[in-house]
């Protein structure tokens, strides 16, 4: 076609066109030479490559953002990341220990780095990793963004270091002599020893369990002489406590999985009955047993010796199924837990069971704290026959007329676990001055959102209404209940100011909207795919 079009012109015109094409080709040739000369790299010179800015650090901890997170994963084989809210009390508690551990690991190993993500600033990362508790700590290995390992129950710098080291190297010390064994079991207040000759899978459960309990040293023995020296005749795990004459033995028949073994070890590390105080109020919740039974009594009472003996006997029988806790009613610092269970001096001695999973409380249906009553109560609960304790005020006629809705036990679930409304609730005690001081701020928050179609601001008197929630914070405390959930509640731990409440609420609302949009997009795609499949099937049938 092009040749035919060219032949259409006269010979003179064709000659002119040929000359113009030749001139154009020559110009292109010389222009290319010029570019080659200008682009030539002189001998000995180096081509400069653009380097991304160095990731900012705070006390040896990388400050991670949405823009540098992927690079941090790529540059570091092991990256332990703390997702936090700056104003959160628990986040502040962990902050210093996390930084100390970061400095220690940075000095000892170039492969391990610590990072932190402020969720209030980096909301997209919070959504991606589904961060609901603060702080949440995750370990990323070899840049794998999809499968991080949760770091739970670790709070001290030394525990962070041990937790990491047990994931990079041996999680347990291999003990090869009786002298080494004796030295090991006396090396700490609690030591855990695995006696395993075979099978291998039981030993693997032990080694994996050691990774999740960084608080204490773990040792592994397969030597026959040490078995005989320790009086061990078969495969088992032993928990040694330096200040106790009793050693706790876990036979291999009870070791069905790593999870089972962690649960048993955590149980035996604790005392048979653990007294609730400032030191143990955190470690109690490290035991992976979701049912706690609490005895509220005065340690100076004349009946204390008998009551405690009965409680301890029941604890020995139901160990591993329930965590037995003593709460001294003479200790004023235990006020928060008295408020939560609504225990007064008139009620004591009193026994309650708390299920941490369902947040439901149970009251022992007997006044006398005898061994038989305790045994009957425990069995009834474990068999699912115990009735939960519930109390409520009557619903006020004008409960929903004001910007802040008034809740009681009878209407709490209907409002909090609503299908279409996100609810932010203040739990208060009427005698608390701190609660009284916050009422005006909470009213302002209610007025701010009173015309928002899917937000409810509410409050409830916890002294008069028994709400089935596991909250051991000092009054007032706050929880966000997302729309559409029948069980979920999110603890608020930020500042108690109007601006902080609004910022938190907007963050939660934005997160819910994004999740809803993602689900709708996924549903639309599925519908489109189904329609295409139907069309294809119809065509094939034709």
From TrEMBL:
Gene3D superfamilies: Glutaredoxin. Residues 1-36 form the signal peptide. Its EC number is 5.3.4.1. Residues 510-522 have a biased composition (Basic and acidic residues). Its main location: endoplasmic reticulum. GO terms for biological process: protein folding; response to endoplasmic reticulum stress. Residues 510-542 are annotated as: Disordered. CDD domains: PDI_a_family, PDI_a_PDI_a'_C, PDI_b'_family, PDI_b_family. It comes from the Eukaryota. Residues 381-510 form the Thioredoxin domain. It catalyses: Catalyzes the rearrangement of -S-S- bonds in proteins. Pfam families: Thioredoxin, Thioredoxin_6. PANTHER family: PROTEIN DISULFIDE ISOMERASE, PROTEIN DISULFIDE-ISOMERASE-LIKE PROTEIN OF THE TESTIS. This is protein disulfide-isomerase. It comes from Xenopus laevis (African clawed frog).
């Amino acid at each position: 076609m092009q040749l035919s079009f060219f032949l259409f012109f006269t010979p003179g015109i064709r000659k002119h066109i040929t000359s113009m094409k030749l001139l154009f080709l020559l110009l292109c040739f010389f222009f290319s030479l010029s570019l080659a000369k200008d682009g030539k790299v002189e001998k000995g010179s180096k081509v400069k490559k653009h380097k991304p800015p160095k990731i900012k650090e705070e006390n040896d901890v990388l400050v991670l953002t949405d823009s540098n997170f992927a690079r941090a994963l790529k540059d570091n084989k092991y990256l332990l990341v703390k997702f936090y809210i700056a104003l959160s009390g628990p986040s502040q508690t962990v902050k210093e220990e996390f930084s100390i551990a970061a400095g220690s690991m940075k000095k000892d190993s170039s492969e391990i780095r610590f990072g932190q993500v402020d969720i209030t600033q980096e909301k997209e990362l919070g959504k991606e990793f589904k961060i609901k508790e603060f702080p949440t700590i995750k370990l990323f290995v070899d840049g794998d963004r999809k499968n991080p390992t949760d770091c739970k129950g670790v709070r001290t710098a030394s525990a962070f270091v041990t937790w990491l080291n047990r994931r990079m190297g041996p999680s347990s010390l291999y003990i090869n002599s009786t002298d080494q064994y004796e030295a090991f079991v006396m090396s700490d207040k609690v030591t855990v020893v695995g006696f395993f000759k075979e099978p291998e899978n039981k030993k693997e459960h032990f080694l994996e369990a050691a990774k999740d309990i960084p608080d204490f040293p773990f040792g592994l023995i397969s030597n026959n002489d040490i078995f005989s020296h320790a009086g061990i005749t078969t495969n088992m795990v032993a928990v040694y406590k330096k200040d106790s004459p009793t050693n706790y033995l876990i036979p291999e028949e009870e070791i069905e999985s790593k999870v089972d073994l962690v649960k048993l070890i955590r149980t035996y590390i604790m005392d048979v009955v653990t007294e609730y105080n400032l030191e143990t109020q955190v470690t109690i919740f490290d035991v992976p047993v979701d049912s706690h039974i609490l005895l509220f009594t005065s340690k100076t009472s004349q009946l204390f010796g008998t009551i405690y003996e009965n409680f301890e006997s029941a604890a020995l029988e139901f160990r591993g199924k329930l965590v037995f806790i003593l709460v001294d009613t003479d200790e004023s610092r235990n006020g928060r837990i008295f408020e939560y269970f609504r225990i007064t001096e008139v009620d004591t001695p009193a026994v309650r069971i708390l299920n941490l999973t369902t947040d439901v409380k149970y009251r022992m249906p007997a006044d006398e704290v005898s061994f038989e009553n305790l045994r009957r109560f425990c069995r009834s609960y474990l068999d699912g026959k115990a009735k939960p304790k519930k109390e409520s005020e009557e619903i006020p006629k004008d409960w929903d007329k004001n910007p802040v809705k008034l809740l009681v036990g009878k209407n709490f679930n209907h409002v909090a676990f609503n299908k279409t409304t996100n609810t932010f609730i203040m739990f208060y005690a009427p005698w608390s001055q701190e609660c009284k001081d916050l009422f005006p701020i909470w009213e302002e928050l209610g007025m701010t959102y009173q015309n928002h179609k899917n937000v409810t601001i509410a409050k409830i008197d916890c002294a008069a209404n028994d709400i089935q929630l596991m909250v051991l914070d000092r009054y007032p405390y706050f929880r966000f209940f997302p729309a559409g959930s029948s069980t979920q509640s999110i603890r608020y731990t930020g500042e108690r100011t109007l601006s902080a409440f609004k910022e938190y609420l907007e963050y939660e609302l934005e997160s819910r909207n994004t999740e809803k949009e993602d689900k709708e997009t996924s549903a639309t795609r599925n519908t489109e795919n189904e329609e295409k499949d139907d069309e294809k099937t119809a065509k094939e049938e034709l």
